[in-house]
Amino acid sequence: MKPYYNPMTESFLTISAAPAFALRHKNKGQIMASLDSPNSPPNPSFAIRETAAHKFLRSISTREAPSFSHFPYSSPPRRSTNSNIHTSPIFSSPPHQGSCAPVDNLVTTSESSNYTYRCLSSVLKRDGQILSMAMSNSLIYSGSSTNIIRLWKLPEFSECGHLKTKARMVVALQVSHDRVYAAYADGKIRIWRRTWDGAFKHIRLATIPSSGGYVRSLIARKDKTIKHLGPITSLAINLSDDIIYSASLDRTVKVWRISDLKCIETIQAHLEPVNAVVVADDGILYTASDDASIRVWRRNFCSGEWPHSLTVTLPSKHSPVRTLTLTSDNGVLYGGCTDGYIHYWLKGWFPGQLQYGGALQGHTHAIMCMANVSKYVISGSADSTSRVWVRDSDGQHTCLAVLVGHRGPIRCVTAFLGRLEDDNEDGCTICTGSLDGVLKLWRVTRTNKESGSLSQNASDYFDL
């Protein structure tokens, strides 16, 4: 292996010709047996590692740009229908049979023909890349590569405040009741309490780990209380157990107790960077990594100092898993991969028991974010599009719409039913944030069959 200096990213790249996942698993045949489905063909990839002074090693697929911070803000080339045209493997995906491809914003399946969608609003604040998003009641919080978290009031989608710190790059956001949790690239989590006094006010509560706790842990040499050694990638909250989970590029997941904001456990979760973490209502923890797997963890309160134990590992072919989402009933787990596939697993009779259900095909680049509300699943991709999927009563998925308008990879997404005033399951409202620095608000609505085909209202669409 030889380091190669990339002038575009100002960093060194080391390219390894061996699949990263295959090198660490000798019993690959046994592990991959549960995924031998015709809906999800194998997709081997090479590992590209970036070793800059301020970043940790990270294995990513060839279907993804080496550095999101320098991702070009132009629409990536679409997959051509002409078989004589050859496209670079970095910007292409294997042929997806039955994939939902947009043609002039039309989706022609029988189910999707009853839906219409449009862009309600598009906002550019010049904060750089939009990296994170969270929603609570009538507020949307958006974090960017700057040190500002902006607040947006719904349904008018107008800015109503901001939170500011000295740290930059808000990489993950979570809102729970009256608390706002924001993770930054410096490996720390800032916490605010939200109050109402004629208008929303936010009071800064704490930063974890605190400076004093960090120094004491160094003196005591207790590694479990030291902050993450790499940027945090994801947060998850389990209020019933009084816990915050933080995943990081340092390959660990840390467990923080909400009551006293202390780290009570460090989980050595994966052999590669951990990209996403979600927790179910029953306390089951799911982690996704660049090692092309999802791991399921169970918390055992009788085990003493290290209560989380690994129960099962779910392989995702050869592609790193970038993002996770759970349905509201915890019945379906979705994992978005860097090859453009969304794999999903169905919950079994016992906690932590999962059965592979299949894969959703359509995106041509890495899946970077996902959200779900009721029967709808929304995915955002590095191909600059979002796709809206609906899950019917039989567990089948249909692509309802392809939301086109961003000029950069879509990094975060959130959604809610209806128009905020109602909980109409025949439609949802979606907010997407992209590395082009733009926030967009979308509305997907079910229409009567007599009303015609899918359309987009150009008068409500503002393209930046």
Shape: globular
* Strand order in the largest sheet: 4-31-30-29
Q: How many beta-strand segments?
A: 31
Euclidean distance between termini CA atoms = 42 Å
Mean pLDDT: 75
What fraction, in percent, of the residue positions are helical? under 10%
Main beta-sheet strand count, sense and barrel state: 4 strands, antiparallel
Q: Strand percentage, roughly?
A: over 45%
Low-confidence stretches: 7-108, 450-464
By DSSP (H or I, 4+ residues per run), the number of helices equals: 3
Q: What is the radius of gyration computed over CA atoms, rounded to a whole number of angstroms?
A: 21 Å
Structural class: mainly beta
What would you say this structure looks like, in words?
With 464 residues, the protein is mainly beta. The chain contains three helices and 31 strands. It has a four-stranded antiparallel sheet, with no helix packed on it. The protein has a four-stranded antiparallel sheet with strand order 5-6-7-8, with no helix packed on it. A four-stranded antiparallel sheet has the order 9-10-11-12, with no helix packed on it. The C terminus is likely disordered.
